[in-house]
Structures are given as structure tokens and as C-alpha cells.
């Protein structure tokens, strides 16, 4: 009843091919956008914005990027951390060398640089497949981090290799550095995520996206029907790295403010983002967000609940939290192996039929 | 020249230490197609249990080892019962994710049960440099690593016999080949999985003992899984000898690179060098050195 | 059930704003502990020492000048991202807000340094973190006394020179540095390079990647190069493995010097008898034979409030936590004195730090006579004395003991480096130097 497309007639191709063909979807997206940009900054305090929502949004963007590569194109990548580092160090060098070009172009530009690097490390995917492909991106992971840690040019020869984000403004609001306004930071990141999430949805349903999915489902068959694996795979690497690079730039410049390559972008980061998209749902834009929420917001909530709510000691809370997250991961996978996004799809089906059983 | 021999030998020894961890991965992957993210944590958990039994309950060494084996078998049974049974026929990546959940649970449990301090693990395994080698040839070899190499050799021999000659071993190979065909001839998947995970648990215990004797038992032990990754990829996910040969190649390769190339580029290159080496091999053999040939059909 | 769900709701929504109800003014002292993760074995004793001392003040004296201390731990797992979350959560905690942060990791320290000046909460990175924060003119909110890594590196050079028979004998010697390949481990490199230039010894730096379980290549190189001395900037499992490897290649332990984070019981015990004679830096005594330790046992452990095991009181890292708590509480006391009120906030505590003066006499009053060096902090100098001693491990007795006096650092090497590095920070972040007159 609630979620029914009956009565919504498509009179022309444009309507039929719209990004959200069903009216209810459009309303839902509109409401989400309204909440994101209107309600959230008005209601939540600095702790929520800085410590919970910023990382959630940034990880969502990274997860979106990886989902394009792994979820849509089927190429496993364990180099997300390193590609985020490429974005972070690009934006750092740009901020220090050309402070005049504006922060938004800098972030986009770091995405472009990352795309180039990602494409190079994507080349082995033409020959190596499946879990074995992980080796190419793992090589990228360890090599790039080593490079950023070793070559002084990347961190402007600072004594320890740490990089610090200098202050940057957009329309007069400070968005990086210590004096940044949490609300401005939130708006900036949320805008990036919203724009590029819609873009991802759009790319995924278009010709390129279909090529990717054909490669994912069976690359030989795809090749036979005329999908060029070279173009498809490398474009997936490029687009994915572009997203991941921007996420890395925001992660360093807006959220952390300072970073050292060996810790902020290590292999755990790569695993974390991969786990987000698996638990959220491979090949789903919504899944990237759900996965990021599951692995970023939920552990913090659990911890706060135990420490503030029940007075557990902080160490024990950490142990219990990790066990609970582990159990939930297994539990969710048993209930719905295709990720949280599938649960939402099932719920939509139910809403469509409700109150009738079928 | 002498130094080169020394580096090579040390590399081989280090490689065997990696192989010990990689073996556990191979066993599980072979029998169930699961890439077990929790293998490193299992090694930590096993070592923690062993030390815990010895320290807190004053078990003698042999009893503590048997106790730990029992715990690992019980764990395998629980994993099958609670997790794997419900995930039959899922995609590999989903199973991989489930083992992450497992890793989290074990990590938290290990810490709660046995504490996070460094625990000294002393089973009387010989340690330190081999004096005889050092004095008569001026070559430095760690006794612990010789011991580990011998253990690995025995273990591989045992596993080979187990896989080739026993009834269970044949059943295991059948399952590895084709789940459905194995089921149809009356092999119980559940039993096989419990056995495989138990064996992997015992292999994890061995790896945990070796690495734990080296550095003390602590959380970092679970991170050795990362060192096993290039070995695994190079050797092929499904080959026991591959894990050993892969370990030797990676160990020797990265040590030679670090010692002879490292000083010119600032050092600490062995980590990425291992992956680059594996990548170079894979470009020629995409299924790993000993992996089964990938046959693709439309 | 309703109560439970209300608790849950409150915890979820208002987590950082919860404790505004307390009646008396409490001094909120957050601690960013790491009792989990790969570095937990080092984090636990430190956190215990820090917490036990403050609890002892509460039980014995009713806090500082009668204001009770509220100790708020937050678990970071030595992870920068979690550390940031903890900071955001705790900075506004309680009536007083967080009075001072002890970040306990190089990564988190770097993270918080720019934030401190905005949130007006001082950071006390005791003997770690950013070395150039010693320059109080550029970093008014950061304190890293009693000594920095750079001072420590020069002290090691002096110790080596002393053993070799004078600074002139350093010429032609070979000194290797085995370091944790991270910002922390890289700290001493520049100083040692400068020292090598000046005194003519050969310096070689060898990185070990996190976590550092496998260091064969590094120690093979040491076997080949045969350095006369080896220094180590290690952390966590890397320390234990390095000490074992050094013993295996028969490297003389009394020529192997670790940074003060590589010199705890945890680091040497796994190596057993082979670690005998190993040296490390220190700025306080090991052991529990001081008045403050007795008080901790009496007022805290006898009441069953101890954070750790009673028999581990007095371990090196425990004492390090204790000395951190002592200096912090003294700074708060000073701040109360300066501002004439108990109701102080972070901004006042900073003034307390800048006027901190803990001399021998005060140490004696605190039951810590001879425990550490006298410290006095000024507006320009946040490093304080910069003096470092060396301690040595006795494997038979399983005890650390100081084997040298406190050396002055070679300020002619460190001072220009500090000026240079802080100037770079100031330029990149648009910080103007404040005047200290």
C-alpha cells in the first residue's frame, strides 16, 4: 500500500529512465536530503558532527568508491588505504603549494591524481583474477605507504613525516585546520557525498555501469558480447580511485587535520572499507552508507552505551564492543548474506504488498 | 659470499615461519573455499590459551598443549555449528566476511579471558643463535627457526599422509574438489568442516607457539597473518607444498632485497617487496605457483 | 525495562553532556588509555600508574586542595582515529571541562596540538609527541617536559662518548639506530645526523615496520656493519624481538641503548637472561620504595580500588604514569594558587604548567624524594630540564636500576633544530610567535 507504483504512468522515455522512477523513492531521497542538510546540523552538537558524522560520511564516500570497483565491477581491492593516502598527500601538496586554487577544486584534483595512480595499479587485473588480484592492490598498499613515509618531498621534509592541514576557507567559512567550524565542515563533506552518491547511482545504471556488471558476472562472457575488458576494468579502477582519493583528501584535511602515512592509511583501513561494502551490500549505493554506519557509528554507540550507560570500564567496554560487532556481523550474514541493503529491498517489497500477504 | 649464504639461510628460515601461518589458510581454503581472515587471531588465541593454562592453572607443558588442542577442536565445532552451517553455498567473499566477525569475537574473548599483557612463552624450545654454526662457520642461524623448520617439515609430511592415505583425507579431497559430488557419495560436509577447522586450529597453535616463543604472546601475534598473505598468494591458495615453497621464495627474496637493496633507498622495503615479488610471479602464473589451473567456461 | 531503555537513550543521545549534575566542583582529568590493541602491554601499566596516583590523591587528600578529581578514561587502542573521538567526547566533560590531555601516542598528540589552542585545553605529552613543542612561543598549549626525544638522543651520544673516553673518541665510531618506522621512530634521526656531522661518527638508520615481529634483515645488517653502538627507538612487540635478536647475534647488551619507551619490564622479560645489561633512557627511578607508592598501596589498593595488580606497582611504565600524574596534579595546584580559586578550567591549568616548579623539596613533600629530576617550566621553555639518565636491566634480579647520573642535553644541537621545526609549523599553520615578556 505504502510503496506502490500503481497509478504512476510514464508518458515519455525521460520519465521512464529517471534516476528514481518511483515517486516514493524521490520523496524518500528528498526527505533524507532535507534531514541531512537542514535538521542534522541544527539539532546535533559538535561531538556528533566532528566525531561521528564526519567520519561516517567520509567512509561512506570511500566505500562508494570501493563498491564501484568491487561491488559493480567485481575486482577485489585491498589498496583502499593507500589510495586514500594518495588523495591525502595530493591535497596536502596542493594546499601548501597552491593555496589560491580553492579547496573544492583541490579535493577534486586529488581525486583525479588518485585515479591516475589507481589505473596504473589496476593494470594487473587484466591478467590476475579473484582473490589473487588482491596481490596487485596489496603491493600498491605497501609500496605507496612506504613511498609517502620515505620520500621527503611528499611531507615537505618535516622532521617526522607527519603532515598537517593548513587552514582553508570556502565562502568565508573555515573548513580545515583547528579553527574550522564543525557545521561548515559537515556541510562541505555532506555536499560532496550527496553529489557523488547521486553521480555513482547514475554511472552505475548507464552504459559504463552495465559494462562493469557484465565483467563482474562473467568476464569471458562479457568479452564475447563486446565489452572491452581493458576499458571496463581500468575505468572501474579510475572511477573508484577518484572517489577513494577524494575521500582520502577529506579524511586528512577536514576530519583528522594531521596524519602520518603508516598509521592513518595502513592496511587495516583497506580491510575496514572492504568490510563496509560487504556488510552493507556489494553493488549497492545505499549499501555503502549502511556499511559505513554499521562499522563507524555503531561501535562508538556501543562503547558510549556501555561506558556512560552501564558504567563499564573503558577497556572491558572495548572488548565487549568488538565481540558484539563480530557477533552482529556473523548474525547479519546468516540472516542476509547479501548485505544490509538487501534487507532494505526486502522491506520495500513488504511495504508494497502491505497489508496483504501477496 | 659467506654473508650472502647467511642472508639466504635466514631468509629461508623466516620463510618457513611465514609458511607455518600460511598452512592454516591453505587447509581451510582447500576444504571449504573460505579465505579465513581469523587465522592470525586463531594463532593468538591458541597461544594465549596455552600460556593461560600453564600460568593460571599450573598445567605441565604436555597437559597444557593437549588442553589447548581440545579447546581448538571445541572451537572448530562451535564455528561449524554456529556459523558455517548457516552459510553453506554462499559466495566466497561472504564467507570471508563471516570469518572477520569470527576474528573480532576471538580477539575480544582472548583479551577478556587471558588479559592483554605480554606473556612469556617458554616450552623449552631451544632459542638463540646456534653456537656451533656461529663459532665454526661464522654463520648466524636461530635455533628456534631450525626447530620451526623441522616442525614444519614434520607437519607437512603428516598432512600429506593424512590427505593421501587416510579415509578422512580422501573425503577431504573429495569435498575440496566438489561439494555436491562429495555429498552425493555420502560424505558429511559438517564433519569434514569440523575436522578441517580443528586441523587448522592445531596448525595455528604451532604457528602461535613458534612466533610466541620469539616475541612473547601478545596481541601483535595476530598480525603475523599479514606476513603470510604474499606467501599464500604466491604459493596458491590450495596447495600445501605451495605454502612452503612460496614461503621460501618470499623469505629469501625479501631478505636479500632488504639487506642488499634496502640501504640505498632508505630501508623497510621488505613488506612491499614481498608483494611485488608475488605480483611478478602471478603475472606469469595467475593461479599461483601451485594453484590449480583456472579453467574458464562461458 | 523502561529504566533500561531510558538509560540507553540517554547514553546514546547525550553521551558527552551527561555529567552536568554533580554538585561539588570536580576536576575532570581525562585519560586516553590504551588497554587494547597491539600496544596494550605498554599502555596498561602507564594508565594504572596515572590513575592510581590520582585516586590516591582523592582518597588521601580529598583531591587537589579539596577539589575532587574525576578521572575519565577513554579507550584509544593507540589508534589515532579513536583518540580523536575520545578527545571530542571528553573535552567538554563535566563542569570544568577537560583540564589537561595526556594523549599517550605520537599520532594523537600531533592530532591534538592544533586543536588545543582553539579549545584552550593544555596538552601534556610527557617526553613524547612533537619535540619542537618545546618552543613555548609557538606552542603555548603543549608541554613536553621533562625531556624530548632529541635531548635524549644527544644524551645517548654523550653516554657513548663517556664510555669511549671522551667526545673526541667518537670520531670514526659507527652508531646504528634501529627505529619504529613511524613518526615516533623518525624523531631522533635529524638530531643524530647533526651530531654525527659534528663529532665525526658514522650514523646509520635502520627502519623496522610496524609491528616488527620479523627483524632478521635488520640484525643481519648489524652483523655485517658491526656498529660500535646500537640505539633503538622501538615500541611494542618490536622491542622484545629486537632485544632477542641482538642477544642471538651476540651483540654486547651494554652497547645497546633503547629509548625510554623501549625500557620496561615487558620489553626485556621475554628475552630472559640474554637481555642482561641492556640499557635504556629514563627520567625517573624504577621501583616502589617511595612514600607515594606506600600511600597508593595504603589508600587505594587496601581499599580494593587499585587499577592493576598490587605486585606490579613500581614497574617502569607504572612509575612513568605516576610521575605524569604527579606533574599534572602539581600544575593544577599551581593553577589554583595563581588564580585563587578551585574552580579552574583548562585555560588556567595552562598557566599552572607555565609556572610549574617541582624542586627537590617539593618532591620530598610528595613522598618522591630523588624519584625524578627537578622541573621548572617557563613561558619559552616547555621542555624543562631536558635531562636524561640511563638505566640498565639486571636479568638475574629482574630489576631495572639507574646506572648513570642525569646528563644535560647538547642544546647547541637541539636548539637550532627546534627553532627550525617550530618555525616550519608556524609558517604552515599561520601561527604567530607570541612574546614571552
**Topology-level CATH name of the largest domain in chain C:** Rossmann fold
- Number of beta strands of chain B: 0
Distance from N terminus to C terminus of chain B (CA atoms, Å) equals 53 Å
Number of strands of chain C: 13
Task: Work out the helicity level of chain B.
Answer: over 70%
Total helical elements of chain C: 15
> What structural class do you assign from the helix and strand content of chain B?
mainly alpha
Please provide a written account of the structure.
- The complex is a heterotrimer of chains A (358), B (298) and C (437).
- Chain A has helices at 13-16, 23-43, 46-72, 80-97, 103-122, 134-150, 182-205, 207-217, 219-224, 229-256, 261-264, 267-280, 285-309, 314-335, 340-353; strands spanning 163-164, 169-170, 173-174, 258-259.
- In chain A, the strands form two sheets. In chain A, strands 1-4 form a two-stranded antiparallel ribbon. A two-stranded antiparallel ribbon of chain A has the order 2-3.
- In chain A, helix 4 (80-97) packs across helix 10 and helix 13 packs antiparallel against helix 14.
- Chain A is mainly α and 358 residues long.
- In chain A, a hairpin with a 2-residue loop joins strand 2 (169-170) and strand 3.
- Chain A has a domain at 23-266.
- By secondary structure, chain B is mostly helical.
- Chain B has one domain (2-284): ABC transporter involved in vitamin B12 uptake, BtuC, CATH 1.10.3470.
- Chain B is 74% helix and 0% strand.
- Chain B has twelve helices and no strands.
- Chain B has helices at 2-32, 39-56, 61-83, 92-114, 131-137, 143-165, 167-177, 179-184, 189-215, 225-235, 240-265, 270-284.
- In chain B, helix 2 packs across helix 9 (189-215) and helix 11 packs across helix 12.
- The longest helix of chain B has 31 residues, at 2-32.
- The radius of gyration of chain B is 20 Å and the shape is globular.
- In chain B, 57% of the residues are buried.
- With 437 residues, chain C is α/β, with parallel strands linked by helices.
- Chain C is built from 15 helices and 13 strands.
- Chain C has helices spanning 2-14, 40-61, 80-90, 106-119, 149-164, 183-186, 189-199, 216-225, 237-248, 265-268, 291-301, 316-339, 346-354, 360-365, 411-428, and strands at 27-33, 69-75, 123-124, 142-143, 174-180, 202-208, 229-233, 256-258, 279-282, 357-358, 375-376, 389-394, 399-402.
- In chain C, strands 6-5-7-8-9-12-13 form a seven-stranded mixed beta sheet, sandwiched between helices. In chain C, strands 1-2 form a two-stranded parallel ribbon. In chain C, strands 3-4 form a two-stranded parallel sheet.
- The radius of gyration of chain C is 22 Å and the shape is globular.
- In chain C, 63% of the residues are buried.
- Chains A and C meet through helix 3, strand 4, helix 11, helix 13 and helix 14 of A and helix 1, strand 2, helix 3, helix 4 and helix 6 of C.
